[in-house]
Amino acid sequence: MRHHLPVFVFLLPFGMAICMPLISLVRPKWCRGLTMLALAAMTGLSVMLYSHVIAQGPIRYALSGWMPPLGIEWIVDGLSGLLLPLLGSLALMGVWYAGPLVTEGKGSIHFHLLTLLLVSGLSGMVMAGDLFNIFVFLEVSALSSYALVGSAGGRALVSAFRYLILGTLGASLYLLGVGYFYAVTGTLNMTDLADRLPDLLASKAVMAGFIFMLIGLGIKMALVPLHGWLPDAYVDAPDSVSPLLAPLVTKVALYAVVRVMYWVVGGEEVGETLPILTLSSWLGAVAALVGAFLALSQQELKRMFAYAGISHVGIIVMGVCLGNPTGFAGGIFYLLTDAVMQAALFYIAGTAFYSLGIRTLADLGRLRGQMPWVIGVLIVIAISMIGIPPSGGFFGKWYIILGALEAGNYIVVGGVVGATLLTLGYFVTIFERIFVDSVSSGPAVLAESPLSMRATMGMLAAASLVLGLMSDPMIRLILDHAFPG
Amino acid sequence: MIRTHDSLIVQIIGRVLIPLIQLFGIYVLCFGQFGPGGGFVGGVIVGTSLVFSMLVFGLDSAWQRIIFRVIQGDGVGLLVFAGVGGLCLLAGGEFLNYTELPIPGLDAASRRFVGIFMAQLGVAIDVAVTALSIVLHLADSSRGYGASS
Prior knowledge:
The complex is a heterodimer. Chain A is mainly alpha-helical.
């Protein structure tokens, strides 16, 4: 039965999503509980799946029994297996966190249904073994995230529309690239493509297709010159939605890039005709610096965190594009850590608004004395974002810098160090506003947030520290099972 | 609420055409296994005929309320699809591997036939209901999305 685990991991959120309208007719109050149940079961199964993959090697699942390369294939290996539990657990926490924020009735049904669809789309993208299925699941997850962003109405509709236009452009460019690959090789299956492409790398069509795919996925993961849609979409999205989108959507697009770059095209081989890895790592450095610099100048809390996310996508890109195992492991480890940190940051922003109505940095002084829990979590996450030793963020950056020194790529070293300094800069601004600013409000009353918010924030803060303490076995796990070849 | 179309010609042509369109839709759905067609196309044609009949004969608010409740079940088609796939899983095959469908007394080829037909039927139901629901939501702006949450 273990052989079937990949399809169960997908079917749990998907099946629950299609049952949701029927459930809402009979028992509208059950939506939240059933959603959390499905996501918890999915997390459990994906942990089982990952341990199975570690013990017995990758699982290749031929859907409907048609053998690949003709049939559709799902692959769960050390890399995709690592991401599935992350997806499930962060979505579960997101739904738990959102409890007090989601209004009863129709809004609640839409939120839970779309979240389940988003998660099933993302998990399909992670497991897909051929290029076209990545596109299909990219669209499934993207369509649900457009609807989630727009569900607040008002300004959010404009941001969601812009996200839709740019996201669709990204998906079309990706599809165009897939078309080029198909025209040259006659196959879409990744393993098959990896066999045929090395002889064809001189072909201009393959190069053009690869670049189209990179640009398309670059829009999806908000790599810097292509990041225009992200800040508005995440800021205007409801507070219940942005912590779901921020850690997952851009990271899974980045995962697709890694998949195509290393498993389909083969990073080193391509380097002989076009230094695509070096170029991408430079782009990552630009993204990390520009994102952090823009974050520094924001006055709105959520917008600052959105730019922080853009900057950290750049850091991950730098890591995975170094082309050596150390940098790759550092990048993937940083991807996990950053997903946790992004979720926690948007939880903090959402909680501050929910309890005290704080949206801008100028109001942050009111947190002091009123929300010790939020401030505590913010300190832990800031330690990890900046990269101070016991945290996950430190070890991710450490391995990326080690990899960059190994590769002799000093631009990446400069990029990581510069982004770290700028990150320190914007967190100093935040803490200055919290602890130094004098506020004219009355006596400090404890205004703590509901239990679900405190619990999820605390768990993520703990997770970012645990990731740091466990970094050695994690890195070894990534090196042994996730690095290609 | 959608009012009845006031032209007699449209009404009479509609009365003749709608059953034909539906018949054609079902034909396309069934023929999909031997040639062009299938669940999606068949579903679109049947759904279009339902939309057409709504536009011609109108829809009073009592019926509209009933239909709004019915299209809550637009996941049923997908459930049929996933259910057929799930049956294959239960019998030990891969998801959607119809040769493993637990139907006694059928050889592998007929099981494939039944399986793919059921899956296509699910797709057709879902597409038809979705077409209907898009038109109804456009017609009734008070139930529009965005305002609801």
